[in-house]
From TrEMBL:
InterPro entries: MADF-dom. Residues 10-101 form the MADF domain. This is Uncharacterized protein LOC115887245. It comes from Sitophilus oryzae (Rice weevil). It comes from the Eukaryota. It holds the Pfam family MADF_DNA_bdg. Residues 114-139 are annotated as: Disordered.
């Protein structure tokens, strides 16, 4: 199959979107069935068979490693002229550096042969200090209250955020079940989902019947007490 530069870059872009194919720390990296479905998606997006897409990516990755080695070698030799690659897909594959970087540093990716721009900030300008006029005790209390207002608002917002983000054991269990269902073939996953839903529905019906029975008994007792009470 013929691969133009434009089509190859399109393939690289789709490959970049699916981290489970190139990042060994992704939770789907070692799941062959998930990878197979991912390659099928890429094939549909690019307009090629999954096997052709996979072979082309392997070829591009091999060339990318060769170009990186050339740059690394030229730097070690102490030459005044560092090797500059002109290969069309080199910059497009720079996201692969994320595999070897800590998670917190993934936003700061510098491409080889490019010098990051350093932006210097102007020194802070000192504002003339204003002298507050003398205030009474009541004014001081008001000032303290006003100064603490932003802090109290922040604490209230933080508590509300923690409450919203806290997960119960049922939330964690639901996420675990969802993750396990995703790892199953679609047919088995749907069948298991149906069984779980049936169990939950049956339990809810039992509780509903019990509540209806309890309410009925309460009504009967109340009705009998009304009859027994003297007029």
């Amino acid at each position: 199959m013929e691969w133009s530069e434009e089509k190859s870059l399109c393939l690289v872009g789709n490959y970049k979107l699916h981290r489970n194919l190139w990042d060994s720390r992704h939770f789907d990296y070692f799941k062959k069935d998930v990878k197979t479905r991912t390659w099928n998606k890429i094939g549909l997006a690019v307009g090629a068979s999954p096997a052709d897409c996979k072979r082309k990516i392997m070829s591009l990755l091999a060339t990318y490693r060769k170009e990186k080695n050339k740059i690394r070698t030229s730097k070690k030799e102490g030459s005044d002229e560092v090797y500059t690659t002109r290969w069309f897909a080199y910059n497009a594959l720079q996201f692969l550096k994320l595999r070897n970087k800590p998670w917190d540093n993934r936003a700061s990716l510098v491409v080889d042969n490019e010098t990051p721009e350093v932006v210097s900030e102007p020194p802070p300008v000192r504002q003339p200090q204003q002298v507050r006029p003398a205030t009474s005790v009541s004014d001081n209390k008001q000032l303290v209250t006003e100064d603490l207002a932003p802090e109290r608002e922040f604490q209230t917002t933080a508590k509300r955020f923690r409450k919203d983000t806290e997960q119960s054991e049922f939330d964690i269990f639901g996420q675990s079940v969802a993750s396990q269902l995703k790892s199953l073939p679609l047919k088995e996953a749907l069948e298991l989902q149906l069984e779980l839903q049936q169990i939950i529905t049956e339990k809810r019906l039992i509780l509903l019947q019990q509540n209806c029975f309890a309410n009925s008994m309460d009504s009967m007792i109340l009705h009998s007490e009304c009859k027994m009470s003297p007029e």
